[in-house]
Amino acid sequence: MRPETHALIVIDVQNDFCGGGALAVPDGSAVVAPINALMDEFPTIVLSQDWHPEDHRSFASQHEGKQPLELMEMHYGPQVLWPDHCVQGSRGAHFHPELRTDAAQMIVRKGFRPTIDSYSAFFENDRTTPTGLEGYLRARGVDRITLVGLALDFCVHYSAIDAAKLGFAVDVITDACRGIDLDGSLDAAHANMRDAGVQVL
Ligand code: VGL
Ligand code: ZN
Hints:
Blueprint: E1 6-11, H1 32-39, E2 44-50, E3 71-74, E4 77-80, E5 106-110, H2 133-139, E6 144-150, H3 152-165, E7 169-178, H4 185-195, E8 199-200
Parallel strand pairs: 1-2, 1-6, 2-5, 6-7, 7-8
Antiparallel strand pairs: 3-4
The protein binds pyrazine-2-carboxylic acid and zinc ion.
């Protein structure tokens, strides 16, 4: 068993990122079994949940003439436009039915502000608006985190970089992650994580 100060953070294992979902990550459901097994090793477990209003500005459907996966300039910088996904309360936003959600003490929701996306579980995409996760972890004395989940090149990647910047020791267990791989985003994620001092296992 790991110490309570070492948290397992499970990123966005939700129906829309798994097989048949609106933004299905290739082989996404394959993360569920290894994550469930890891939960036995960690006394401190946090889940993140992508949680968008139905008119969220990261959705291509909200922009005339735009298609999913096109880039668009937002007030905080460039943003990939996504298919509608993880709409608050929808089946797609629910956790994968086999994920052991009962083992978690904390669920952090992100991406709920209509005009700003949030890949990282720590900060929204302006990189300054906090989700509150840092405060929760610090209040519990956590200094080390292990990240797993979906998608490796977006939400896991951004969470890992932010956590390292905040001074947490960070590792990512890639066997318990899957990526989207949009225009080399997986290679870029690996390089950025290594540069930030994240241990990629
Ligand atoms: C994610 C794209 C949009 C993720 C969330 O969980 O990686 N990716 N929203
Ligand atoms: Zn999203």
